[in-house]
Amino acid sequence: MTTNHAAVLDVAVIGAGFAGIGTAIRLRQSGIGNFAVFERGSAIGGTWRDNTYPGAACDIPSRLYSYSFAPNPEWSHTYSGSTEILGYIESITAKYEVTPHIRLQHNVSGMWFDEEAGLWNIAFEGREPVRARAVVLASGPLTEPGFPDIPGIDTFTGHKIHSARWDHDYDFTGKRVAVIGTGASAVQIIPELVRKAGSVKVFQRTPGWVLPRVNRRTGTLAKEIYRQVPGAETLARQAWFYGHESVALGVVWNTPLTRVVELVGRAQLRRQVRDPWLRRQLTPEFRAGCKRLLMSDDYYPALQRDNCKLITWPIARIAPDGIRTAEGIEHRADCIVFATGFDVSKKGTPIPITGRDGRVLADEWRRGAFAYRSVTVSGYPNLFLTFGPNSGPGHNSALVYMESQIDYLVRAIRIILDRDLTMLDVRPDRQERYNATIQRRLGATTWNSGCRSWYLTEDGFNPTMYPGFATQYRHELRDVDLDDYTVTTARSDHS
Ligand code: N01
């Protein structure tokens, strides 16, 4: 990698999704102007640019799906659709004057840390490299579509669509469609598909807990109040926040409230599904919260439409003309929709990152990622992560967690710049102690209670979720304690 004449930025932000844009806004607000946001795609928006399948929407209330430092009184519904969310990201990018900092079509191919200079060297595919005093990796944990390892998948001669890369040119009218997967994406897609397709067969491996969503339009008066009355938006936000904090008691840990969540799920199943056989097939066999809770009012009704069928036999193979199940039935299909989630095998390190002493992050994370307070990793100075290891909420908005991460890392970057540090590197003992506590606490959570989910690695390690309340997480990230770090200036090295 050539670095000699590369420009030096104070901060390089990688990714222009929710986290990258939020970071850019906060950097500007803290007076840091010499930064760039590098985005591999040709537009901003990250997950909300990529996930455009029919029915794509947020299953977290909109009020909590915007930054408190960039409130949005305009949300049209309790839960907003993907187009509106993307519109929000675009509008705050323009409003907070982040646009001039964004470099589209800059795909980072690798990064290495120059200890002597205290600079990250960043290489791109087909672009000039840059150097930066600090880097924020905001590239998102769920970006690459995950296709299942089903024999014969490549032999299918019909149309294949992944939920995260929807093909809007494909006309579903009258088509025989097979949907593989029944997770958060699938329960949003299926109600839309059954309206258009000739027939829809839903291949379910594991039924999930489906709770009522109750999506309401925001009334004109309510909107006016959010616009005009100081503090009204914040108040509504707080109400949703603490509502979700209490949900944690029924989702994160196995408590009597977990039973309440399950009762609500069972009641919806009983109310919406009359056929006892179908109801049995749709009854989850794991504790509510172990996998992500599914929020939908129209998924069960969609499954019972005349043109829809739930298939619960395991898939044996995919053939050129459709799907064969284990009992030998052939299900012909014109199109297979893969609502099978994301490839998390490279989670957190989509790019090669080399830190101090030639350490390679992907090697260290081979058996599962770890960090200090989810935002920084020992041996990789001046590098900060958003949505890093063990920052998954499971019960509250990812944005709430992201905001704490962003505020923490902007404070840390301010320290690097103000004190002219070459390295701010978290101490390994602090990181180890932190992770030992996190993993001990995770042992008592429902996520580790025995179901299969993308939260866990193959050997059952949980590098994904934060085992606590959002309030607790916020508290942990409220300050940058320099005692946690080895602090190096150009002249001296002192811990
Ligand atoms: O993916 P998933 P997703 N044979 O991994 C099935 C976020 N999100 O895209 O449960 C048969 O949850 C698999 O079956 P099983 C959110 O964080 C947010 O739905 O493993 N089936 C499962 O049913 C979420 O957690 C929103 O047995 C196979 C499905 O495919 C994350 O994205 C909306 C299979 C995959 O479910 C991922 O959700 C949507 C196989 N070989 C998503 N392999 C919001 O609203 C996999 N499956 C914010």
TrEMBL record:
The keyword Oxidoreductase applies. Pfam families: FMO-like. It comes from the Bacteria. InterPro entries: FAD-bind_Monooxygenase_sf, FAD/NAD-bd_sf, Flavin_mOase-like. Keywords: FAD, Flavoprotein, Oxidoreductase. GO terms for molecular function: flavin adenine dinucleotide binding; N,N-dimethylaniline monooxygenase activity; NADP binding. Belongs to the FAD-binding monooxygenase family. PANTHER family: FAD_NAD(P)-BINDING DOMAIN-CONTAINING PROTEIN-RELATED, L-ORNITHINE N(5)-MONOOXYGENASE-RELATED. This is NAD(P)/FAD-dependent oxidoreductase. It comes from Nocardia flavorosea.
